[in-house]
Design brief:
Elements: H1 2-14, H2 18-30, E1 32-33, E2 41-42, E3 45-46, H3 47-50, H4 55-63, E4 67-72, E5 77-82, H5 86-90, H6 92-120, H7 131-144, H8 150-226
Antiparallel strand pairs: 1-2, 3-5, 4-5
């Protein structure tokens, strides 16, 4: 029965158009919880996570009894999950997709946890992605942007915005410090110049005083000589 379901899924998949097959891949990998050392399992995904533009395909897959749709009344969201975990274990195509996307899906599950923690913290900046995790998120966003939901993308972008604000703050602080150092240097240079001027003035006065003494001494010596006083 389990293999029969997998064979049926392959038949339905082959009846899809090329564009629908691409959408089907995105839908199904979002319905799998990637195991780390354990078996992959099914997960309940929201319409946003599988892509709102893909919901028509989800409805068709539901009519083919490959997925089950529902509605989360509390969150006011449409949800979808695979009809049975046999699809995950025995449908070779889905297993191949997961093998190819495993690193991405494991990272994405971690991103979902971080996103929820940020929401639970009333969107505190301290819960945003920073450093290496943010750089990795930017890489995945560039590589797999079409498979990252709007909420997840927004979360990453908020981290980028915070990093940019902090960079600008550091730059303003750096410029302020440099400006302060330049002002201090100018003040010090001014004091040094003033001190050199004072020293030169004092030196000039000393020279003038010395010259005055020499002139005065010569003058009195000459007067005494004229008076016959040696």
């Amino acid at each position: 029965m389990e293999q029969a379901l997998a064979n049926y899924a392959e038949t339905v998949y082959k009846d899809l158009s090329e564009s629908e097959r691409e959408k089907a891949q995105r839908v199904f990998i979002q319905l799998v919880q990637p195991g780390e050392g354990t078996e992959d399992t099914r997960r309940l995904a929201t319409s946003e996570e599988v892509g709102g533009d893909n919901w028509d395909l989800v409805t068709r897959l539901a009519s083919e009894r490959l997925v089950v749709t529902n509605r989360d009344e509390l969150r006011n969201e449409e949800t979808v999950e695979v009809v049975h975990e046999a699809l995950i274990r025995h449908w070779g195509r889905l297993r191949g997709w997961m093998q190819h996307k495993r690193k991405f899906r494991i990272w994405q599950q971690g991103l979902m946890v971080a996103l929820q923690q940020w929401i639970d913290s009333n969107k505190d900046n301290g819960a945003l992605l920073r450093g290496a995790p943010l750089a990795l998120a930017e890489d995945w966003l560039q590589q797999q942007g079409e498979e990252i939901s709007k909420a997840q993308r927004w979360f990453i972008e908020k981290g980028v915005e915070l990093r940019e604000r902090e960079r600008k703050q550091r730059e303003r602080l750096r410029r302020g410090i440099i400006a302060g150092l330049l002002c201090a240097l100018l003040v010090i240079s001014g004091f040094a110049g003033f001190a050199r001027w004072q020293w030169q003035e004092a030196k000039n006065l000393a020279i003038k005083a010395q010259n005055s003494e020499l002139v005065s001494g010569s003058y009195f010596a000459e007067k005494l000589h004229k008076c016959g006083i040696n």
